[in-house]
Amino acid sequence: MTIPLYPDFVLANDLSPDAFGSEVDEVCEEIESATKGLGANKQRVINALATKDPTQRAKISMRYMELFGQDHKKFKSMADLMKKEFSGDLGDALEFLALPAHQAECAMIRKATKGIGANVDVIWSIVAGRTNEEMELLKKTYFQMYNKDLGKLLSSELHGNMERLVFNCLQAAEQAFDPEFHTLDKAREDAEEIHSKGQGRTGTDEKAIFKIICAAPPEHLENINKMYAEKYGYTLWKAMENEMGGMGEKNLRQATLYLVGMKEKPHEAMAKLIDQACRGFGTDELLLTCCLIRFQPHMGNIYTAFIEEFGKSIHDVIRSEVGGKHKTLLLTILNAVWPEPI
User: For 298, what's the count of Cα atoms within 13 Å in the CB-facing half-sphere?
Assistant: First the structure.
């Protein structure tokens, strides 16, 4: 099965914030104190939220409205408080941190689709390579939060093969691995089908290829890759790199490789996405922020993969690419998982 990103607490849908304990209440009280009066204390709020893991933040988010909802009747969630008190990249990051993981991803997608031109990289990086359970919860939560169907929203923002890729990901159709069905013969058959829809013909049938990849459980996709390399002399990854994304479709190639990577080498795929956010002319700070918040549960393995792949630390990248309190927040998220040597 594809690796999950949501904590078990979120998937369990436990709605009993009054049983979270005194530590959660203390954090909520600290946030309320830090945002009262004229001008919120950025550092205190960063310390309260960015030092916590996704399970702790989900509990804080739920408990805050239980404790202080009567004082903030215009707010639906603690994220509304963050939007009121903070702005820019820091405000976006604190809004995401103030929500449980599934709601945070919905807020990220909404941010990525606001204004002229969607941030396509944020969209595909959230929907590609997800477990069926998480994808179903994401779609349900988006409708609950914004009264909009996620599929219809993304079809209006995306076009062509990128829309087809995202559509297949939204179906939550990854099969459970069954050794009696997902045999080597089946892997060989799927490898041949992918080749016939790609390099074995004039013009790539991306839709057919996306359907096979999205449905394949990781164990089966690995066997498809082996059969593909055995028969055609190069890996499925190399084929996707060559076939996906013609002129002006660099995003499609990156998205397809990420989808395959999340099934086969997820920590390496996430490390490469963090690097992608910082490459080229200007850092994509929204993508970088989303990556560090969403990937926090796996950051230890991602950090190791990043160093092995790029020869530098994620701390170094953040220091060189981000400034101000936004930099402080991102470094705090990292240090909560991978403390930097003093």
Answer: 19
Q: pLDDT truncated to tens, each residue of the chain (342 aa)?
A: 789 999 998 888 765 655 678 999 999 999 999 999 888 999 999 999 999 999 999 999 999 999 998 888 889 899 999 999 999 999 999 999 999 999 999 999 999 999 888 999 999 999 999 999 999 999 999 999 999 999 999 999 999 999 999 999 999 999 999 999 999 999 999 999 999 998 756 668 899 999 999 999 999 999 999 999 999 999 998 988 887 866 457 789 999 999 999 999 999 999 999 999 998 778 999 999 999 999 999 999 999 999 999 999 999 999 999 999 999 999 999 999 999 876
180 vs 182: CA distance, rounded Å: 6
CA angle 13, 104, 111 (to 5 degrees): 150
Q: Is the separation of the CB atoms in 141 and 150 below 8 Å?
A: no
| Helical packing angle, 184-197 and 218-232, nearest 10° | 60
Residue that the structure tokens 């080749």 belong to: 195
Q: Is the dihedral of CA 132, 134, 137, 143 positive or negative?
A: negative
Residue labelled with tokens 């709020």: 45
Can you read off the two tokens belonging to residue 144? 């609950």
For residue 139, what are its two tokens? Answer: 């779609």
CA dist 84 and 75 (Å) reads 10
* Cβ 48 vs Cβ 87: under 8 Å: no
Q: Which helix (H) or strand (E) holds 172?
A: none
Residue of 204, 211, 209 lying closest to 169 (CA atoms): 211
CA angle 64, 70, 74 (to 5 degrees): 90
C-alpha 330/C-alpha 319 separation (Å) is 9
Give the dihedral of Cα atoms 153, 158, 159, 163; nearest 10 deg: -80
